[in-house]
Amino acid sequence: MKKECIAMLLAGGQGSRLYVLTGEMAKPAVPFGGKYRIIDFPLSNCSNSGIDTVGVLTQYRPLELNSYIGSGQPWDLDGSTGGVHILPPYMGSKGGTWYKGTANAIYQNIGFIDLYDPDYVVILSGDHIYKMDYSDMVARHKAAGAACTISVMEVPWEEASRFGIMSVNEEDMITEFAEKPKEPKSNLASMGIYVFSWKTLRRYLTEDEADPNSENDFGKNVIPAMLGNGERMAAYRFAGYWKDVGTLESLWDANMDMLSPESGLDLHDESWPIYARSVNAPPTFLGEDSHVTHSAFNRGSVLDGTVENSVLSSNVRVGKGARVSYSVLLPNTVVEDGAVVEYAILGEGCKIGAGCQVGGTPESAAPAPWGLTVLAPHCELEAGKRVRPGIMLDRNGEEVSKK
Amino acid sequence: MNGLHGIIFSYEKRTDLRELTEIRSAASIPFGGRYRAVDFSLSNLVNAGVTDVGVVLHGRYQSMLDHLGTGKDWDLSRKRGGLRVLPPFNYQKDWGVMPFRGKIEALFGVRSYLDTIRQDYVALMDGDLVVNLPMAEIYENHIKSGADITVVCGNDSFATEGGSYFEIDPEGRVTEVLYNLHHPRGYRGLEVYILSTALLRDLVDECFAKDQYSWRRDVLRAKKDVLNLRCYIWKGFAAQIRSIQEYYDRSMQLLDPAIRAELFTPERPIRAKGADKTSTYVGSEGRCINSLVAEGCRIEGIVENSILFPGVVVEPGAVIRNCVLFKETVIHSNAHLAYIIADKDVEVLEGRTLMGHATYPIVLAKGSKV
């Protein structure tokens, strides 16, 4: 079945900088924004962009992600030609290996891509929160006659050295690429979203695989090799909201951003819907004494306490006299009566006993260093416990280091 | 294969639902913040392991067709069996245009469908019933009791528009069938019946041959001494949505945690169509208490003792008390509403005031702009 364009979504990363949150699941399966999982963003973008064939490359702890994606129906990706396909590493007659890098993951699935004989392949990451029309990017790729198009966004100059930075000419064609440069020559950062002409990419992947010194990574090997050979590389400028939620802080930030559409992340805007596999539960009940402000919640919750500046997933319970501020509560968490949760991320199914104090404001931590407090999924705290700001607990309530 | 088949009646009947049924049948009335009435009977059946369900439609059923789709949301989109929507197809007499006069007439309208039922027993249910019945238990009970027909009743004589009431002897056998009572007595029938498929076919054919159309008059009442009719008494919440007042009172009962716990018990989840909407947001100046709120709402005003369906917007300064606001209702700033039922897509402009009363809730028809 010939397709003009298909997408390959890299979802195999461990997400080690999300620490305990990804102890049992791959990063793209981490819940976000009260209703979503991170992977809903690229999948919905594909669906809204008219891309109906998506390969999802999984490797690390894929069970939760696999069952979440299922048939792809929530994203309209269950068509009779194409649809969403989960692609774990597999064995061939000459054996098989784990995915060694982003480029190797695609290399190992050349057979899958060839089934659709596409002209273009879009390479996506499973850890970004953004709304983007990939068809517009493909149009730019075609118009530029490029072999590769990389989406870029302007970042503040002082932060430029944290990103892969592209230098471009007057036609926005890429002239130079530098990974985390000390002295950036440009402030156009790569967003890790690529469009390739498949024939060209197929050749480079094969060459890259043959090179024993390569790390088989798009950013480190394939892109520099293409640039070095003088391939036409176009930049595609993106100006909307985009956030890599690979760290606890950025995940928390992005959740807070969804509370304020001024941030650019407006999920109420239905012209570009983000779909999700929804949880079946009755509507949320806000009790007589509840006090919920500047917060978001979803289905199945019962809120009797105070919730401020927080994002609550489905089936959360906040007891009487409890207070949740500046926090992100993942599904099925319970905060019992009188407990206080501040500046924290609580994993799925956490239970905070009555009167606990979890986390605290930056001021309360001084002079000790401050940080978000993070609880692993299914961590249960007995009544009256205190967990200082910046502490991370595993599911048995043992402290683990953020190193 | 489960031995029970479901038939849900969703044909037009005389009710006092005014504006709410101008554009839909009672079975597709939104209820409880994210459901349609029919979700309850469908879920009751599916939770008992029923795999095949027919929905008899007649009159204003477009909204119902939209809602049911392929039946996927209830796991009823199946290769064999699953959901069958049954608009009138055995046209005889005036059935294409005239509403069905009773269940027998409705069943005769789908007579050939009755022959295709694979299961030995059938549960008949009304689509306007909001309840969470343990149908598996009722079915088991039906077989054990040796009843010809099990009649499911509520344990109250709550007056409902056009309700049926049953008097029973100490053994649970029906001794009297009453309807259209000014002062209801006996047990209130929930219009849920279980009987064997063979008996159902016989009754439909026999009644039709005698030009009889009414299930409760020509079957239940006429044959109560010939057939073994037994009551199953359900002690929990059971609402029949047949008037605006009943709709309103029953909706407000959901603000009681005990009633929600029972109606939405996780053991028998009520399934409903998803609503691709984001999380609900309550603003810094927003205040929302003692209310049931679905997803995708934006609340920047005051909401008390109310039920909000998905996508409702309450702008700053607006005050909503004791209201039921359907999907996508927009209340602009400084509007005041009390005891209002707003149908889908209603818009209330800035500064307007609308007050009903607990005994006379005002309905704003779908799409109206106040």
Radius of gyration of chain A: 22 Å
N/C terminus separation of chain A: 47 Å
State the helical fraction of chain A: 10-25%
Low-confidence stretches of chain B: none
- Principal-axes geometry of chain B comes out as elongated
Summed over residues and divided by their number, the pLDDT of chain A gives a mean of: 93
Rg of chain B: 21 Å
Measured as a percent range, the helix fraction of chain B is 10-25%
What does the largest sheet of chain B look like? 9 strands, mixed
Mass-distribution shape of chain A: globular
What's the average pLDDT of chain B?
A: 91
Query: How many individual β-strands of chain A?
Result: 32
Q: Which stretches of chain A of 5+ consecutive residues score pLDDT under 50?
A: none
Can you describe what's shown?
The complex is a heterodimer of chains A (403) and B (370). Chain A is built from nine helices and 32 strands. Chain A is of the alpha/beta class and 403 residues long. In chain A, β9 and β10 (174-179) form a beta hairpin. Chain A is globular. Chain A starts with a strand and ends with a strand. The model of chain A has no long low-confidence stretch (mean pLDDT 93). Chain B has helices at residues 37-47, 62-68, 103-109, 111-116, 135-145, 197-209, 215-221, 244-253, 257-263, and strands at residues 4-11, 30-31, 35-36, 52-58, 82-86, 121-126, 129-131, 149-154, 164-168, 174-179, 187-196, 229-234, 238-240, 280-282, 287-289, 291-293, 298-299, 302-304, 307-308, 313-314, 319-321, 324-325, 330-331, 336-338, 340-342, 347-348, 353-355, 362-364. In chain B, the strands form six sheets. In chain B, strands 1, 4, 5, 6, 8, 9, 10, 11 and 12 form a nine-stranded mixed beta sheet that branches. A five-stranded parallel beta sheet of chain B has the order 14-17-20-23-26, with no helix packed on it. A five-stranded parallel beta sheet of chain B has the order 15-18-21-24-27, with no helix packed on it. In chain B, α3 (103-109) packs across α6. The longest helix of chain B has 13 residues, at 197-209. Chain B is elongated and about 65 Å long. In chain B, 50% of the residues are buried. The model of chain B has no long low-confidence stretch (mean pLDDT 91).
